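Morning - N6-Methyladenosine 5'-triphosphate inputs below, output right after.
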Amino acid sequence: MTEVRIASKKIFTLVLLHIEAQKKILLGFKKRGFGADRYNGFGGKVEAGETIEAAAYRELEEEAGITTDVLEKVGLLWFTFRGDTKGLEVHVFRAASYNGVPMESEEMKPQWFPTSEIPFSQMWADDHHWFPLFLSGKKFVGKFHFLEDQVTITGKVLDVVDELPEGFDIGIDSC
Ligand SMILES: CNc1ncnc2c1ncn2[C@@H]1O[C@H](COP(=O)(O)OP(=O)(O)OP(=O)(O)O)[C@@H](O)[C@H]1O
């Protein structure tokens, strides 16, 4: 067990558009910034004065050029990195339908994938742990501790829950 001291947190959203009837999911190839050159859902930092849900709708539109009528909150993830006292709290949402046509933005290039062919080798290392829970309609809470390389996971907790907590506490954690 390693002790991790987290002094502050940043809140992010992550939206996954999952069309269950067609067994497909929309991901975006991130062209710049944090997580560049990886596929991910659409999302970003929650801005001051904005609700987390509003940020999720906004980022989906900004990054993928589409809107959705309903977002369901399905997951809460907590990422920490060795040598960094900042925690990343990611609120994961599911969209089951959308309006418009997915379009490439400055940040993301959207691409559909069959849910049986999700490109985990080109995604964040945590994704292959929790995507199966997402795809099977579960709600989940996960904590992942990474090395500085942002690839190696040295600590992991992942639980299926009935109700999602509001967020994570900063302070001392072990993993
Ligand atoms: C560590 N393991 C991780 N696994 C899966 N997803 C992760 C992640 N860590 C961050 N994410 C997501 O990556 C996006 C970053 O967003 P990011 O581009 O930094 O934000 P935003 O669009 O506000 O940035 P700009 O400042 O405009 O560039 C955001 O959806 C966030 O939820």
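Note: The beta strands are 3-6, 8-19, 24-30, 39-40, 72-81, 86-95, 108-114, 139-146, 153-161, 171-174.

O.
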